Amino acid sequence: MRYLTSRLLISLVLMACLAATAQAQRARRFGLQVGMAAPIGDFKKDHFEDDYPPLARRGANVQGNYRVDIKPYLAVGATAGFRFNRFDLDMFAAPDDELVQHRKASGWKTTYALADIYLQTPPGTVFGFVKGSLGAALNKSPEVRVETTFGPIRHSADPVLVPAYGLSSGFAIQNGRFLLTVEIGVLRTRPSFEITDAKGNRSTLKQPMHTVNSMLGIGYTL
Known about the structure:
Layout: H1 2-22, E1 28-39, E2 59-71, E3 74-85, H2 89-92, E4 100-105, E5 108-120, E6 126-140, E7 144-148, E8 151-155, E9 159-175, E10 178-189, E11 192-196, E12 202-206, E13 211-221
Antiparallel strand pairs: 1-2, 1-13, 2-3, 3-5, 4-7, 5-6, 6-9, 7-8, 9-10, 10-13, 11-12
């Protein structure tokens, strides 16, 4: 897995070098995007068939990006971002449960870096694009502590670096040097966490952390 992650990071560097080679002659765009990250698939499970249901809820996503046009219909770039999804503590341990004495939980966190390639209509006042992304993500599981009359329930937090990829589409509106973007897409990553229970026993949890991200951004063109 470390070898695969290293190859992805090397690809990211090569993509950045390609962008740097072309940037003297092509439009360069810097942007900041914010929006929502809605969990999908096994990441949004809210039942207790598993020992560690993810109970992930809608969260926030923020990212910065850079891209450079290679051809009128082709661009490359890079994205770095942070995603946070709340752990549904109310579902896990209801606040009105008489057996619960104390409860506390952090959220699911993802910090990621991706190399991007864009297929786009020729840039104008309004243009559309499809973006494919590949890179790495540092994911962290939530730390959960619930004290009950029968004893504690504890899930440990664990940071894991694994590959990540995404696919999105959207459109942009160019006004002078400023750029407004609307984008929707999927970010996928699947870490394996080391989990420690209340008795100190350790186990491995392979947890998909896939989200649909709806983003609104502003950029500047050089």
